[in-house]
Write a structure and sequence with these properties.
Elements: H1 2-12, E1 16-24, E2 30-39, E3 46-56, H2 59-66, H3 76-101, E4 110-121, H4 123-126, E5 134-138, H5 141-148, E6 152-154, H6 157-162, H7 172-179, E7 185-191, E8 194-200, E9 210-216, H8 219-228, H9 239-243, H10 248-255, H11 275-284, H12 292-315, E10 321-326, H13 333-342, E11 348-350, H14 361-375, E12 395-397
Parallel strand pairs: 1-4, 4-6, 7-10, 10-11
Antiparallel strand pairs: 1-2, 2-3, 4-5, 6-12, 7-8, 8-9
Length: 400
């Protein structure tokens, strides 16, 4: 125990750290592993991505996660077992990946593990005033630390909720450190299973930054593909959506949820936006039997419209702005085309424009959060802002 504490103290004082950032999102497609060199901390943070890989989940792993994912009623025994099981799977992925990269575990200072989100329950969704905001990620950090022999920072979202936030989005903290600019307003748009953004006004402190979920990203399109197109987990190159025609009645039905009228910032997840959400919207539409291709075209447009409306909310009167996009949605050409055409007067690029791999960005940001937990200065984020408390996040899990 004492040796691990002493090692942690040594790491906290290092100017350069090697940190593995992990991310597994609501798309359930696999584990992102980003090996990062992180220099300094706070506003002086500099990061170099040394290596990156996404390891797909097997069908077995996907099925086990889906047995408890975003469901109100599950087997408690299964949840307990999966908490350890997922951690060991992630740890084994790290061990194998380091071997393939020719990197020894002793070279790694920290693992920053987001875990696998199972349920996200902000008060705005469950509306039970007896309770506050809640969220749950599985993949226990202690199991990961013991299995890999590397100090692990995990379970980041709980401190955020404890300090008054909703547990999401928390990428804001890293976005602010990496992408703030004195002259340009920046929108950091991430299109994962759920889409979210961080708005960083030009030359402003953290208190002025706003981060919010927007609504569906890739998840509704992926859900429809999985049900109606054999062995297809996503619409590669938007081939299916391009064959369809947007169904305006269905689009209106999809837009009719009160979530879209809630003020920013707000959070959501597949607990609301799922296959049942699509099927209910189809029942309420004037065309009860749209083609699968038309549904895909409409879901693509639905996702794009909500993203554009959310961005408009923040930069409608700010021509000196820039949009930087990351996440799996950048590989959907129909979705990207709509967004770029809508904002044809301002730059729309991926985060690679600023030297950050767009597929690795979320994993990189957790590496930054871990660095701040171990070495950060509380003054970096000032007094915080609405839903963005000034706290260090993540539980410290020691190998022994």
């Amino acid at each position: 125990m004492k040796s691990s504490i002493e090692k942690l103290h040594t790491i906290s004082n290092k100017n350069n750290k090697k940190i593995i950032g992990l991310m597994s999102g609501t798309s359930l497609d696999g584990l992102d592993i980003a090996l990062c060199e992180v220099k300094a901390n706070g506003k002086n943070t500099a990061i170099h991505l040394e290596n990156f890989i996404t390891i797909p989940y097997t069908d077995e792993v996907k099925a086990e996660i889906k047995s408890v994912f975003a469901k109100k009623n599950i087997e408690l025994e299964k949840l307990c077992l999966l908490n350890e099981w997922i951690a060991v799977i992630h740890a084994n992925m790290i061990i194998k990946t380091l071997e393939n990269w020719g990197v020894s575990a002793v070279e790694i200072d920290l693992i920053a593990s987001h875990g696998q989100t199972i349920y996200h329950a902000p008060l705005s969704l469950h509306q039970n005033n007896t309770f506050g905001n809640g969220t749950l990620q599985i993949g226990d950090g202690d199991h990961m630390a013991v299995k890999t022999g590397i100090i692990t920072i995990a379970d980041f979202r709980q401190k955020h909720i404890a300090a008054g936030g909703e547990g999401a989005p928390i990428a804001t903290y890293g976005d602010y450190l990496l992408f703030s600019d004195k002259h340009t307003n920046r929108i950091l748009l991430n299109i994962g299973g759920i889409s979210n953004l961080t708005f960083i006004p030009a030359d402003k402190e953290f208190e002025e930054v706003i981060s919010t979920d927007i609504g569906p990203g890739n998840n509704l399109m992926n859900e429809w593909m999985l049900k109606h197109f054999t062995n297809e987990s996503f619409d590669k190159d938007a081939i299916i959506a391009k064959k369809g025609i947007v169904n305006e009645e269905l689009l209106v039905a999809l837009q009719s949820n009160p979530f879209f009228k809630n003020t920013f910032p707000k959070t959501t997840g597949p607990e609301l936006f799922n296959l049942s959400y699509i099927e209910d919207a189809i029942r309420r539409g004037n065309n009860p039997s749209p083609s699968n291709e038309d549904v895909m075209a409409t879901l693509n447009r639905f996702t794009a419209v909500n993203i554009c409306e959310a961005i408009n909310h923040f930069i409608a009167d700010s021509p000196n702005s820039e949009i930087l996009i990351s996440g799996g949605g950048i590989h959907n050409p129909l979705l990207m085309s709509f967004i770029k055409n809508h904002f044809n007067q301002i730059p729309v690029n991926t985060t690679s424009e600023k030297g950050i791999h767009p597929d690795a960005k979320e994993a990189i940001l957790f590496a930054i959060l871990a660095n701040e937990t171990i070495s950060g200065d509380k003054n970096t984020f000032g007094s915080g802002s609405k839903n963005m408390p000034n706290v260090s996040m993540g539980k410290i899990c020691l190998p022994d």
